[in-house]
Structure formats: C-alpha cells, structure tokens
Design brief:
This protein is mainly alpha-helical. The chain contains two helices and no strands. The chain has one domain. Keywords: Membrane, Transmembrane, Transmembrane helix.
Length: 40
Amino acid sequence: MQEPHSVFLVTLFYLIRFSCVLPVKVLFLQMSVAVVFRMV
C-alpha cells in the first residue's frame, strides 16, 4: 500500500524527468482544468 507522500515523490520525479515535454504537460493541465470547471 503506497503512501500519498511516495506517490507525490514519484509524480515529482516524472515531472522532472519529462521536463523536456513541459509544454505538452501545460496543455494537458489546461485541458484537465477546463474539464473540471465544466463539470462543476
């Protein structure tokens, strides 16, 4: 059973590892936020 802290560390690791595709991450984040606000 993973702890939330370790999950956060893994997420942070992947964000750093794939920092080269940061624009794609930003675009995906904007899309996710738009979907969330649309559902609310």
